[in-house]
């Protein structure tokens, strides 16, 4: 490439130094030197210039081939993209279907588990209610038996007091000198018998009230236990283990001891 510029410089110098032809702007140049310089210039030109000329000569064909190749590449890319999109869409639909099926199975399992929990809780609540009813019947029956026994004892005591009072009254009446004292004693004995009878009746009522209070505590504890179980079912923590209210048995024993005294 340096030789090209050098040859051009020499040709420019020859033209500048050439003798002019008046009155024109033409000049006389040495033909041989110019031809030699042109040959040197032709030889100095690189092969890329010829290649570039060939490209220029065939540019329309090259551009057409390039456009055809580009169109083919675009069509191939579009077909590949459409195929990839269809495949991705089919895969997405398959994944969504599997996810829906798995979610439905999970929901069905959860519902079945919830139904089992509710059934177990219902059965346990029914058992608790049945136990409470049986215990209520037992406590009420025992309270009635104890009340009847205490009432019979009170009646027997009252009758004995009446008999004793009448006997004492008759004995005192038989003694004329102590008639007034006998009457007073008889009245006192009768009043004492009535007081004893009232006391026994009051104790009997107190005992029955205590038994009913125990049963009320038992029912209250059972209702609270059932409420806790329902709350735990609603919060999803599972079926609770029901147990009597803490301290209920100790309070029952203390009441029985107070009644025994």
Can you describe what's shown?
The chain has 261 residues and is an all-alpha fold. The protein has two domains: 1-45, no CATH class; 122-260, no CATH class. Helix content is 87%, strand content 2%. It is built from six helices and two strands, in the order H-E-E-H-H-H-H-H. The protein has a two-stranded antiparallel sheet with strand order 1-2. The longest helix is centred in the middle third of the chain and has 116 residues, at 59-174. It is rod-shaped, with a radius of gyration of 64 Å. It starts with a helix and ends with a helix. The relative contact order is 0.05. This is DivIVA domain-containing protein. Residues 78-120 form a coiled coil. It comes from Skermania pinensis.
The first-to-last residue Cα distance is 135 Å
Q: Tally the helices: what do you get?
A: 6
SSE order in H/E notation? HEEHHHHH
Classify the secondary structure makeup into a structural class.
mainly alpha
Helix fraction bin: over 70%
What is the radius of gyration computed over CA atoms, rounded to a whole number of angstroms? 64 Å
Number of strands: 2
How many domains would you count in the coordinates? 2
